Amino acid sequence: MQKVKVGIVGGTGYTGVELLRILAAHPQAEVTMITSRSEEGVALADMYPNLRGHYDLRFSVPDSAQLKTCDIVFFATPHGVAMSMAAELTDAGVKIIDLAADFRIENLTVWSKWYGMEHTEASLFDKVAYGLPEYYREQIKQAQIIANPGCYPTSTMLGALPLLKNNLVDVNNIIVDGKSGVSGAGKGANVAMLGAEMSESFKAYGVAGHRHLPEMKEKMAQIGGREVGLTFVPHLVPMIRGMENTIYATMTSEMSQAQLQELYEETYKDEPFVDVMPAGSLPETRMVKGSNMCRIAIYRPVGSSQVVVTSVIDNLVKGAAGQAVQNMNILFGIDETMGLQQVALLP
Ligand SMILES: NC(=O)C1=CN([C@@H]2O[C@H](COP(=O)(O)OP(=O)(O)OC[C@H]3O[C@@H](n4cnc5c(N)ncnc54)[C@H](OP(=O)(O)O)[C@@H]3O)[C@@H](O)[C@H]2O)C=CC1
Ligand SMILES: CC(=O)N[C@@H](CCC(=O)OP(=O)(O)O)C(=O)O
């Protein structure tokens, strides 16, 4: 089989370099173009020395004629950029994976409200699939544009959807307590992300409303079949990579801890990137650092009608670049785990 020719728009950010790290070890993919307007002409390895010896490429400015020579283009760019090039590229037969949010939310009135811009490409939505393979695999196989999910939605939905799909909880009041490492804010993040500002400190943000909330609500309703009342509070924790979401809901079923454990194990038994931890254990972010795994635990706290699920991912891998490569593999009929078998870094 010929290698898949890959273009990356926006190669200088954290998700761009993470795509490059993963694709360097992918036997069926070849990165042929990578763009940056600010770093035009700079060799990849000069900017990211971890890539020395892996690529003989330089950043070039985004050029649609050249991008059309690729089989697939990843957009590791701010919101709004993929939308501006998607029609031209898909007309030329190129597949697209957007790591930003341009195609994540189908209700475009909601999208515009949260992203503060008009959506100009409503007509492309019949080519789009939401790139959470564990729940949208069949749609992904048929799609030309993949909306790679946000990091908080990936971890939260993998943790919560078995409860919603099986109608086990009160959907009016689900609470998601999210925590992310600072790389989630991107390389161009502001002074609040400096070591001296965020180290030895811990804070909530986006309490009044975070843009991942409407994404989760729309997809949870699609999969679970009912509107969900969701409170989502993200927190910034002083670590570089990693994300943990703790999900709280009230049971409407009598299922025991052991039955829930069995349900989760059964739900994800064939999923290569979801690990339901053994009963009584808890996942930590370092158990997934650098890997495409999501690890989950489920608990029924003693004497309570609550159920608590904890879910961890690496925000840059299963939360962004790793999931994007997983989606590429599905789109091209490649083994879904190809290039994604990195074991987490410990310690
Ligand atoms: N960091 C994370 O954990 C996650 C990030 N994401 C999303 O992935 C996307 C990329 O994130 P991240 O890697 O952190 O991003 P950065 O903001 O660090 O990098 C953005 C990249 O996009 C390029 N770029 C910016 N504007 C344009 C434009 N108008 N046209 C073409 N290229 C442009 C920049 O290069 P230049 O300006 O030189 O062209 C740069 O290479 C974002 O949408 C982010 O929200 C998704 C999930 C998780
Ligand atoms: C710590 C931090 O700031 N995290 C980012 C979310 C990560 C991300 O980039 O999400 P998108 O894919 O939707 O852009 C935030 O809360 O805005």
TrEMBL record:
Any one of the GO CC terms: cytoplasm
Entry's localization field: Cytoplasm
Pfam families hit by this protein: Semialdhyde_dh (PF01118), Semialdhyde_dhC_1 (PF22698)
E.C. code: 1.2.1.38
Lineage: superkingdom: Bacteria
Active-site residues, record numbering mapped to chain: 151
Domain Semialdehyde dehydrogenase NAD-binding residues, every copy: 5-143
Keywords noted in UniProt: Amino-acid biosynthesis, Arginine biosynthesis, Cytoplasm, NADP, Oxidoreductase
Chief place where the protein resides: cytoplasm
Role played: Catalyzes the NADPH-dependent reduction of N-acetyl-5-glutamyl phosphate to yield N-acetyl-L-glutamate 5-semialdehyde.
Family, as annotated: Belongs to the NAGSA dehydrogenase family. Type 1 subfamily.
Protein known as: N-acetyl-gamma-glutamyl-phosphate reductase
Organism of origin: Thiosulfatimonas sediminis
Gene behind the chain: argC
